[in-house]
Design goal:
Radius of gyration: 18 Å
Largest sheet: none
Number of helices: 9
Helix content: over 70%
Distance between the termini: 31 Å
Shape: globular
Strand content: under 5%
Number of domains: 1
Length: about 210
């Protein structure tokens, strides 16, 4: 009972130490800017839906990457203290990131123009959050954004270069640009989410 109480009282300081408010401000601002850009491009490109979907992927990328520095507090030793079981709090933190990223980007539909299919946004938010958590555990929070940016650049480029004749294995890299009906892309996203969430929850972040 004491441990549960400690976790409850640790939640507000945890949110402050993770700079959740600053992260949300960056995520909301970047999503808003990309939504405006997508709206301006609607009358410019014939394939405006594809442009919006691409911008939606970048909105998810930026929103998730912005959460990277907050995956750990200022004192990692404090995060590992035995006085509090940090594992449920870390799990809640990862879930919060995934839910808020997906919610922010899909909410653009309320403005009359969406940044891609909502299922695709949710899938990418799930997978990118998993990558972020895995990178925070292995590479450290200061570099957790790197795999997200690399994937956001390499995925579309590889998909464009290979076209419809792409080998099956490339779906591991190009999954963020696949349509929401792609079962393989969902499998990759869920696998990344499970691996990243488990690693971050159990091992915790690195500096």
């Amino acid at each position: 009972m004491r441990r549960t109480s400690d976790q409850y009282h640790a939640l507000p300081p945890l949110l402050r130490s993770r700079r959740v408010a600053a992260w949300l401000a960056v995520a909301a601002a970047s999503t808003t800017v990309l939504r405006v850009v997508a709206g301006l491009l609607v009358d410019t490109f014939d394939e405006s839906s594809e442009v919006s979907t691409a911008l939606g992927m970048y909105a998810v990328t930026i929103s998730a990457a912005a959460a990277g520095p907050g995956m750990a507090g200022a004192d990692l030793d404090l995060d590992q203290t035995a006085a509090i079981d940090w594992r449920p709090l870390r799990l809640a933190h990862v879930l919060l990131i995934g839910v808020l990223v997906a919610g922010l980007v899909t909410a653009t539909v309320l403005t009359g123009h969406t940044l891609g299919p909502s299922q695709q946004i949710v899938r990418n938010a799930i997978g990118f959050t998993g990558i972020l958590a895995l990178a925070a555990t292995t590479l450290g929070v200061a570099r957790a954004w790197v795999p997200l940016v690399l994937l956001a650049v390499a995925g579309p480029y590889l998909a464009f270069q290979l076209g419809t004749n792409a080998p099956t294995w490339t779906s591991i890299i190009t999954w963020p640009v696949h349509p929401p009906t792609s079962g393989a892309s969902w499998m990759v996203a869920i696998t990344l989410a499970a691996a990243g969430t488990a690693a971050y929850t159990l091992a915790g972040p690195r500096a």
